[in-house]
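During the reporting period the student researcher (J.K.) took over the structure-prediction task from the postdoctoral fellow and processed the backlog of single-chain submissions. One of the processed entries is reproduced below for the supervisory committee.
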Amino acid sequence: MNEVLLDVADGVALVRLNRPAQGNALNTALKTALLSALRKTAGDEAVRAVVLTGEGEAFTVGQDLRELRQALAADPERAGETVEKHYNPITLLLATMPKPVIAAVNGTCVGAGLGFALACDLQVWSSQATLATAFHKVGLTCDSGLSATLVQAVGRARALSLMLQAEPFTPHQAAQWGFAGDIVAPDQVRPHAMALARRLAQGPTKAIAATKRLLLAAPSRTLPETLAAEAAEQTALGCTRDHSAAVEAFLTRRKPVFTGS
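J.K. obtained the following structure tokens:
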């Protein structure tokens, strides 16, 4: 079985975690395949939007604990290397990919899976999904960017509560706390995400990439640095064909057609 399935059509890459019988638990083979698929989509100019989802009833239940138990038995000091080798680059690719990435959370989304979902630009949540941080239940702290993205989503106090108690919660609860994204019926998660991705794939891809860069870097920049970065991005985008064509379309009352160039 291929641990990750990748299909591209109409400018959209659909990336599917494919260990449904195991709840798409993140073993080494799946993490390696996911990293490879994301790198491929990031470098493919024909791909202008990405959807990440899971096959079966789960998005992902997080780290494969059976494999982790074997790694701990073999060499506990090296068992945690997967964070730097797999989780960090996967999270970074999702957050920095120069095209929009949508998490289609079709079911259980736990641990690193929640980190992956929140690292994406947009989320579509199944109304029946179960979410959790879960790390403290196995004696670990968070990874996959959750110490930043969860705080950004719900604030420090709520994020700390979710981490320390490690209890499951629902997308509806998460929305009340500040999670963004659409909540839809389970059978509508993938169609809804794909429709959104196809719409974004017809947008100004370079402008979307610039917006992602600016928002990701803004918290660590001073206001003068932010203004300078915005000016630099606007200058570069002003030279794109999408910009000039869109201005012309606006002035002639036509709908702009963006090509990503």
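The committee noted the following: The beta strands are 4-9, 12-17, 49-54, 58-60, 101-105, 108-110, 122-126, 131-132, 182-184.
J.K. will present the remaining backlog at the next meeting.
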